[in-house]
Every structure is written in C-alpha cells, then in structure tokens.
Design goal:
Elements (H helix, E strand, L loop, with lengths): L2 H11 L2 E6 L6 E5 L1 H18 L5 E6 L5 H16 L3 E7 L8 H14 L4 E10 L2 E8 H13 L20 H6 L2
Parallel strand pairs: 3-4
Antiparallel strand pairs: 1-2, 4-6, 5-6
Length: about 180
C-alpha cells in the first residue's frame, strides 16, 4: 500500500501511522494511538520495576585483633543485612605487620561463617587483596542456588608471606649461632 494512502487511512481513523519493522522489505507499519501505546508501555515498565528487588552489597569491616563483643555486634549487623536480602562483603583490614599473619584473617572469616550458619552461605571464597582479605556472603535463600557453584570450587589458599631478607652486613641471631 502506498504511504500516502496509509496516511490518509490514519487521518480518517484519528490514529497514528507507526513504522513497526523498518528493516523489512517493504517496511511494515501499523495504525494505532501512539500516546495510548506509550502510556501502556510505561505502565508495564513501572510494574516490572515494582516487582524487582534490588540487591545491595553491604560491607562489614573487621580488624584481626577485634574483641569478642565487637565481633558479636558485627555478626548481628551482618545477620540483619542478610535477612533483609542484601549480600554482605566481610573485609578483614590488616595494618602494618599484621599482614604477615593472613591465617588470623582466615580464622576470623571462618568464625564469621560459623556464627552465621543457616543464615548465610559463602558466595565468594576468601581471598587476599593487598592489605585486605575479602569474602562475600549471600542469604540462605540465595545460598541454595550458589551452593553447587561453591561446592565445585576449591577454596583459594592464601599465599604464605616470604621472610624478609636480612640486611647486608647484619646477621640475624640465628645466623650468628651457625657461623661461630
């Protein structure tokens, strides 16, 4: 049908001529009320946005030398966030020479997981990132879907920190004992 004839039909029906498929040969057009069509599309999008739940990744920061009461407070906060449907990133922050003992951070993260047993599951295994050790936890409902993925992965081992080389001209006490 010629374009001018289609436009005349749209004018008589008090509708709009809307091109549906421009790549087709010949191009496909429809007669419809474009304002009503846009309103219905926006209404559908609003309904979809209402039904969606935005999952946030919240962060809990812990130091290796945390006290028992402070640790319990952090665990309670994590539990509350997980029950609200958010994910929790547990970060162990090492300062100074604490980084030479990443095993303390691993033990602390294991303690967090044991405290949140049944409420959370590990989504991302603990890993060392600079002076921070990071682990991501998700709620128990999400844990069932990611449990298979986590079970197939082997936990990442934290690399041992190499001993600092002795300065030139200075021997350690151990070296002096061997070389009398």
């Amino acid at each position: 049908m010629p374009t001018s004839q289609a436009q005349e039909m749209a004018r008589r029906a008090n509708l709009d001529l809307v091109e549906v498929a421009s790549t087709a040969v010949p191009p496909v057009c429809r007669l419809l009320d474009y304002g009503k069509y846009r309103y219905e599309q926006e209404k559908k999008e609003r309904e979809l946005r209402k039904s969606q739940k935005v999952t946030l990744v919240r962060e809990i920061r812990i130091r290796p030398k945390i006290g028992d009461h402070d640790f319990d407070a952090k665990v309670r906060a994590s539990k509350k966030l997980l029950e609200e449907g958010d994910k929790v990133r547990v970060v162990i922050m090492f300062r100074g020479r604490e980084i030479t003992h990443p095993d303390l951070g691993m033990k602390l993260l294991q303690r967090v997981v044991e405290s949140l047993q049944g409420v959370a599951a590990i989504e991302k295994q603990p890993m060392l990132d600079g002076k921070r050790m990071i682990m991501v936890l998700s709620g128990a409902a999400k844990a069932k879907t990611t449990a298979k993925e986590t079970a197939t992965k082997t936990p990442e081992k934290v690399p041992a920190m190499p001993a600092a080389p002795a300065e030139k001209g200075k021997e350690t006490q151990h070296a002096k004992a061997k070389n009398p």
